[in-house]
Write a structure and sequence with these properties.
It is a single chain. Helices cover about 40% and strands about 15% of the residues. The strands form two sheets. Strands 5-4-3-6 form a four-stranded parallel beta sheet, with helices on both faces. Strands 2-1-7 form a three-stranded antiparallel beta sheet, with no helix packed on it. The protein is globular.
C-alpha cells in the first residue's frame, strides 16, 4: 500500500480546513470516563463522540473537505469504501448536488449500502474485498473523468479527519477535570 504522497500536515492547514467545513459539520461532544469503566487501569479517558456526526462517523469531515477544496468535474466523484467512507462521500455529494459513484465489496454492510443509496449515489458492488472495489473505482475514474476521493490516502481526506483533533484540542475539557458531555469549542 502506498504511503500518503505528502505526509506533512500541520495545524495551520487543519485550522484552515476547519474554518471552511465547520458550517457543514456537527461539533460532536466529548465524553470523559475512567479507564476502569472499560476494564483498563484507573486513568481518565476522553472520547470524541463522532457517532453523532453526519453519517455517523468522522469520515464526513474528509469527504466534505475533498468536495470543498478541490475542483470537481462534471463527471462528479468516485470512491471505494468498505462502508463509512462511501456513506460520507455520498452525503457530501448530495449536499452539493454532485454526481457520485461509490464502489463497495460484497461484504459491505447492507445498512451502509442502503445509506449510500439514500444519499442518491450510484452504488456499485465490486468484488469480494476492499481492494477489488478500489480497483474498480480506479477503472471508473479513468473511464469517466470523475474525481477520486480516497478513504485515507489523500491529503484532503486527512486534513478533514484532522479537524476532530483540532476540536478536541480546543475543548474546555482539561485532562485533570471531568467534563461529562462537554461540547468542543467552536474554532
Amino acid at each position: 500500500m502506498a504511503a500518503t504522497t505528502n505526509p506533512l500536515i500541520d495545524r495551520a492547514q487543519i485550522v484552515a480546513v476547519h474554518s471552511r467545513i465547520r458550517q457543514h459539520i456537527r461539533r460532536t461532544p466529548i465524553l470523559a470516563i475512567e479507564g476502569n469503566d472499560l476494564g483498563l487501569e484507573d486513568f481518565p479517558l476522553f472520547l470524541k463522540l463522532e457517532l453523532f456526526q453526519h453519517t455517523g462517523s468522522f469520515k464526513a469531515r474528509g469527504a466534505l473537505t475533498n468536495l470543498m477544496t478541490r475542483n470537481v468535474p462534471a463527471a462528479g466523484v468516485v470512491a471505494a469504501s468498505g462502508g463509512n467512507h462511501g456513506v460520507a462521500v455520498a452525503f457530501a455529494a448530495q449536499k452539493f448536488n454532485i454526481p457520485a459513484r461509490i464502489f463497495v465489496p460484497r461484504i459491505a454492510s447492507p445498512a451502509k449500502q442502503q445509506r449510500i443509496r439514500q444519499y442518491a449515489a450510484n452504488l456499485v458492488i465490486a468484488g469480494d474485498r476492499y481492494a477489488d472495489a478500489l480497483e474498480a473505482s480506479k477503472m471508473w475514474q479513468e473511464k469517466s473523468g470523475a474525481l477520486p476521493i480516497h478513504a485515507f490516502d489523500q491529503m484532503e481526506t486527512l486534513l478533514g479527519q484532522g479537524t476532530v483533533g483540532l476540536e478536541f484540542s480546543r475543548s474546555k475539557c482539561p485532562i485533570w477535570t471531568p467534563c461529562w458531555w462537554r461540547w468542543a469549542a467552536a474554532g
